[in-house]
Design a protein that fits this description.
alpha+beta, Uridine Diphospho-n-acetylenolpyruvylglucosamine Reductase, domain 2, Uridine Diphospho-n-acetylenolpyruvylglucosamine Reductase, domain 3, 4-stranded mixed beta sheet, 8 helices, 29% helix, globular, binds flavin-adenine dinucleotide
Length: 211
């Protein structure tokens, strides 16, 4: 292991204790999605609990030029979560809260680690549901990042049509908000659609406003 990676892992262990793992079993579990047989494990896995921790992890890795890979449910099919150059896997599954439901406006704000089935269980009884269904019980963050579609897309659209705003942690640890809850808006560059489908290459999504 490179000294820079060792130093990053030591710092992460100091900060997050048992929310960092270097065990072979955990690294293997994060080494591939559902589709690629080749196992390319990260050097360590960390589970942040909020956006500030995500930013701090990114800033640390950036300062040491250590690769990072965001991880949702690991259900993607084309080697998205594999770590060909090692580095730190940021497992987003513990950031899984529903932040806000605006039933009158038919939108909601969620953390990226919530799965689509858990979101729909939460919405039951509100008169709303989240329609994008790729088959896998993927996280919303992973679905944004792969611009997922599915069996209901002809009627309800894909993730490209159902994401209104994003909060994203950039590589240097800064936080960016893009998009607007106002549907009638044509202001500025369309960064929501740039980030939707970017497969974790432009930043780590920390909050999503969904239609
Ligand atoms: C049986 C099956 C059927 C499928 N059918 C379809 C289909 O019909 N249509 C379709 O579009 N897809 C389909 N998929 C693929 C599906 O869209 C993806 O598996 C899913 O979107 C990935 O979500 P995940 O939470 O598992 O993400 P992961 O697999 O964990 O990650 C996927 C990508 O997103 C990145 N990522 C994850 N979380 C974040 C985050 N918070 N911020 C930034 N980047 C992040 C990862 O780095 C990775 O690049 C299918 C998958 C399966 C297993």
């Amino acid at each position: 292991m490179k000294p820079a990676v060792e130093e990053v892992i030591r710092t992460l262990q100091d900060r997050y204790a048992d929310r960092v793992s270097v065990s072979n079993a955990v690294r293997e579990q994060h080494a591939r999605g559902e589709g690629l047989a080749t196992s390319l494990p990260p050097d360590a896995v960390v589970w942040p609990l909020d956006k500030h921790e995500v930013c701090a992890i990114l800033a640390l890795c950036n300062a040491h030029r250590v690769p990072v890979i965001a991880f949702g449910a690991g259900s993607s099919l084309e080697g998205h979560v594999s770590a060909p150059f090692g580095g730190i896997c940021i497992d987003m599954s513990r950031m899984n809260a529903v932040v806000q439901v605006n039933a009158e406006d038919s939108d909601c704000v969620v953390q990226p680690g919530i799965t689509r089935e858990d979101l729909n269980a939460y919405l039951k009884g509100t008169g709303l549901f989240f329609p994008v269904d790729p088959g896998a019980n993927a996280t919303i963050g992973g679905m944004v990042s792969t611009r997922a579609s599915g069996t209901t897309t002809i009627r309800y659209g894909s993730m490209a049509h159902n994401v209104q705003c994003l909060e994203v942690a950039m590589a240097d640890g800064s936080l960016l908000r893009v998009g607007s809850r106002a549907r009638k808006s044509s202001a500025g560059y369309d960064l929501v659609h740039l980030l939707t489908g970017s497969e974790g290459t432009l930043g780590v999504i920390t909050e999503i406003t969904l239609r």
